[in-house]
């Protein structure tokens, strides 16, 4: 059975959906004002794996991941590009889908856009005002934090941290400095909608609460996102009425020990990494650390991930796929059931690969290969043809195949110097040749 760390309570708990026939999960998606960086990619990959695990264990999953398409950053990006917010949001939503798709991240079942749910947000805000949890002031509507006695239960943040970390504007017309915006007026040229409080736009936090209620109902099973969203975003969602049994958060990504920032010039865009590294290797790297722990990205990270995948694909190459046995897949499933322990699951995949190489029995190798491939599916790995993977990146396969064949003939004739010369020529093309079982296979160097 699946167990997950619940940030509400700060402990690992057995996961059981409210409705045994229908699991509901919502994950905070991107604010689409720029290209996705590796930090944006981590929650997308982590919760893609969790969705795969949930689908494997439960009859039905509704997985929603939103698009925030109205935000100060989008407005700033549109102004800088001399265009409108719709164009910016559309461009970077499409780019997000392409870049994350290259990492094997499937589209969610539901992908609500904030701007399509303004009426639901207004209705929710009116309800909070009616319950004396929110108030209008100076064209704004604010949630009154002291009206919710459990505020801070998720993050454990104290009052000082709330004031420093929250997206709040301390203004004299606030009843409490912690009060946060539900609706704010739109200035000239900014996008906005008519509301009972004037022409304006929603605050960030109300967007997710409204979209969850609209698509998944009043109660959901899992609410996920990066650890940076735990406070204030998720804390504020709870105050607004979002009800989730499990709150699941992934850790930060650092770059060579430093926080990613434009000022340091170390922001790693997914599309830039894809220029040199296969998407599946980037995915493997993002799963190489436990999702709750920080992940430090170094220049060696993608190379090591590619080499690890080469070993797994190498075990599948030339192996017929038989019938997967549950006992062979059990270690991978057990690792994922243990709070989505992907490092242990990857280790179990490599154990299966080792067993394939070690087994003298062809039928047993085919069973193990099936287990390796099927277990890889749970992680979104080993999705390609092994030979295609091993030869990935080759610019002229016909030339390489001709050289490999010529070298094989030279070896048959015991022309060792000629065979070595061809090997050197192939190495110059980035190709490694492997000789085993009387065959010569080639692959691109990691």
Q: Overview of this structure, please?
A:
This protein has 16 helices and 15 strands. The protein has helices spanning about 40-55, 70-80, 85-100, 120-130, 160-165, 205-215, 230-240, 270-275, 280-285, 300-315, 325-335, 340-360, 360-380, 385-390, 395-410, 415-430; strands at about 5, 10-15, 25, 60-65, 135, 140-145, 180-185, 200, 220-225, 245-250, 255, 260, 295, 430-435, 440-445. Strands 4-3-9-10 form a four-stranded parallel β-sheet, with helices on both faces. It has a four-stranded antiparallel β-sheet with strand order 5-6-7-8. The model has no long low-confidence stretch (mean pLDDT about 90).
What's the short version?
Helices cover 45% and strands 16% of the residues. The strands form five sheets. A four-stranded parallel β-sheet has the order 4-3-9-10, sandwiched between helices. A four-stranded antiparallel β-sheet has the order 5-6-7-8. The chain has a three-stranded mixed β-sheet with strand order 12-11-13.
